[in-house]
Write a structure and sequence with these properties.
The structure is a single chain. With 140 residues, this protein is an all-alpha fold. The protein has a domain of 78 residues. It has 1 helix and no strands. The protein is rod-shaped. The termini are far apart.
Length: 140
Amino acid sequence: MVRLHVDVGTVDMENLKLPIALVMAMAVQLAGGVWWVSQQAATIASLEESVQQFASKMAVEDNVNLKRDVQDNTDYIDGAFAEIEELWDETDELWTELDSLVVTIGAITKLQQRVAVIENDLKYITRDHNGMLDMKGGVK
């Protein structure tokens, strides 16, 4: 078995030399990251404001729509009540007409009964007195 041993040693931070291009690239990336984060924060703030405006606008529209719907329903209900009242009045008129028809039919029935009695009496009178009366009401 072979063992490998590597001695890393210590790095002297005072004498550390970094290429200028690497430092510049890191600085540009850091600046770009700060700029991107600030742009995101501005976009989020703008969107929050837009959402608040839309929410306010929708609340106003909902309120206007609710008032319109309530007024439309009130008008519909008032119209329905007016129609019901009109039908109720017509029903009262029909009951009044029905009562008068019942009275009229009762009177007609009484007249028909009286006519039937008179016809029956006339039939018996004619049978009993056949030939005794002339057509002018005189006696033969």
